[in-house]
């Protein structure tokens, strides 16, 4: 959650900076907020009323707007309890005072109904009269309660040629209540944003600020899915092969568009769900003369791992690491095929053979590319030979400490005690130095050392007499 919050903050900062640069050269078109002041805004979320949350988020969001940004404010349901015409322009679209917006919103007392269609009509009539284009942002925690159809209102206005973009933020709505709102946002060439809480409302307001009527129309759409179901994801677009950010969007479980000049880009796609990892899609192409859509699938692929020893199934641990070195999956082979599911991406796979000793018990395979629905088969064969040592005094086996080092490097690879039965070692092929030191009643006897060569599949037996 903390990572997502940081990501959103940086994203909003980029948008704010870009917006201020663009607005410095041209006065931006008005943004008109239609604010929900119906009685349901007294409802509680996170220990606060929806009214308090919405007022606070709206006040904070407009703080990132340029100083010459015109901000209009229209409210509905705040004066009369049962009046479907209770819609009032509280601040004209010529207003540039952010403090006036904040103080006005905080003074509103929710009371009445939810006349969405009539509210939209009121604002559209103002645009028609003033012959001005604008971005309209409707914030609502409920559906139409006055028999209007906001989708029809918006569709007719667009056919008439009135120039506006409509975004709708549904605050705490159920999925079954959003159909007409999504229809209206689509007809208004804007987006519908689902805000389940204060954080979601803030996220939506940040993106709304980057999707105004003044922005170039989006030509590159992204749709994110997992297991054939749409998911919500952030998408950052970079110039291909660089870290130069070009644009960003959030999918909200739908196909959402951003503008990318003709060229090739790398997309960093980060799902909002904490149990799904981000992926990078490289060299996607955008075109000037047509819209492009890209579906990003987070369906898992599989890595099927097999380890053998001298050609026969062997038990090993398997670790799969992402590009940052984080272990994303793991397990043991137990001498069989081990399948591990991961998100599409590039991975490093590490095998650690169990039981055997030596300098070749570990294997790392890098740049293993996994695509959605794909099964990547990986296999690695380890080699060993066996070495058995027995220590005796006369015909009696005695207890000793045995240490085994790889001769060329001097690295200790194994050690054990013979007790009264000898000891066996499973070793990688190599030449070893072995030191045997008597224990117990025979600890006064001098240690003995020797070298052995272990070969693949062969067994060596050595008996020392003390």
TrEMBL record:
<dbReference type="InterPro" id="IPR051173">
    <property type="entry name" value="Ca_channel_alpha-2/delta"/>
</dbReference>
<dbReference type="Pfam" id="PF00092">
    <property type="entry name" value="VWA"/>
</dbReference>
<keyword id="KW-0732">Signal</keyword>
<feature type="signal peptide">
    <location>
        <begin position="1"/>
        <end position="19"/>
    </location>
</feature>
<feature type="domain" description="VWFA">
    <location>
        <begin position="30"/>
        <end position="208"/>
    </location>
</feature>
<dbReference type="GO" id="GO:0005891">
    <property type="term" value="C:voltage-gated calcium channel complex"/>
</dbReference>
<dbReference type="InterPro" id="IPR036465">
    <property type="entry name" value="vWFA_dom_sf"/>
</dbReference>
<protein>
    <recommendedName>
        <fullName>VWFA domain-containing protein</fullName>
    </recommendedName>
</protein>
<dbReference type="GO" id="GO:0005245">
    <property type="term" value="F:voltage-gated calcium channel activity"/>
</dbReference>
<dbReference type="InterPro" id="IPR002035">
    <property type="entry name" value="VWF_A"/>
</dbReference>
């Amino acid at each position: 959650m903390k990572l997502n919050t940081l990501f959103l903050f940086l994203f909003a900062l980029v948008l704010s900076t870009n917006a201020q640069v663009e607005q410095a050269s041209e006065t931006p078109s008005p943004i008109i907020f239609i604010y929900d002041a119906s009685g349901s805004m007294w409802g509680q979320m996170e220990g606060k009323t929806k009214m308090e949350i919405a007022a606070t988020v709206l006040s904070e969001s407009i703080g990132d707007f340029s100083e010459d940004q015109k901000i209009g404010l229209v409210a509905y349901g705040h004066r009369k309890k049962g009046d479907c015409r209770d819609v009032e322009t509280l601040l004209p679209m010529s207003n540039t005072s952010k403090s006036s917006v904040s103080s006005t919103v905080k003074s509103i007392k929710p009371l009445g109904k939810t006349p969405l269609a009539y509210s939209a009509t009121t604002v559209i009539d103002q645009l028609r009269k003033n012959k001005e284009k604008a971005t309209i942002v409707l914030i609502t925690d409920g559906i139409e309660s006055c028999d209007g159809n906001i989708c029809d209102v918006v569709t007719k206005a667009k056919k008439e040629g009135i120039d506006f973009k409509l975004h709708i933020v549904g605050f705490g709505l159920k999925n079954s209540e959003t159909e007409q709102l999504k229809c209206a946002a689509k007809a208004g060439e804007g987006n519908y944003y689902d805000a389940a809480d204060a954080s979601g409302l803030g996220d939506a307001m940040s993106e709304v600020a980057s999707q105004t009527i003044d922005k170039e129309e989006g030509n590159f759409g992204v749709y994110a899915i997992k297991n054939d179901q749409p998911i919500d994801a952030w998408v950052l677009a970079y110039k291909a092969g660089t870290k130069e950010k070009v644009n960003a969007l959030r999918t909200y479980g739908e196909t959402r568009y951003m503008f990318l000049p003709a060229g090739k880009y790398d997309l960093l796609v980060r799902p909002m769900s904490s149990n799904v990892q981000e992926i990078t899609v490289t060299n996607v192409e955008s075109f000037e003369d047509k819209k492009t859509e890209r579906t990003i699938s987070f369906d898992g692929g599989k890595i099927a791992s097999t380890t053998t020893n001298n050609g026969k199934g062997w038990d090993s641990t398997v670790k799969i690491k992402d590009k940052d070195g984080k272990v994303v999956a793991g397990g043991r082979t137990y001498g069989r095929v081990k399948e591990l599911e991961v998100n599409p991406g590039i991975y490093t796979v590490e095998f650690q053979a169990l039981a055997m000793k030596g300098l070749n018990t570990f294997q790392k395979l890098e740049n293993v590319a996994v695509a959605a629905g794909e099964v990547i088969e990986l296999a690695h064969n380890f080699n060993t030979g066996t070495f058995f040592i027995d220590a005796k005094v006369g015909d009696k086996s005695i207890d000793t400490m045995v240490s085994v080092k790889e001769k060329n490097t001097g690295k200790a690879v194994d050690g054990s005690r013979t007790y009264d039965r000898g000891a066996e070692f499973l070793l990688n092929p190599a030449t070893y130095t072995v030191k045997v030191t008597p224990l117990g009643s025979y600890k006064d006897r001098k240690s003995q050392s020797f070298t052995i060569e272990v070969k693949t599949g062969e067994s060596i037996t050595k008996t020392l007499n003390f």
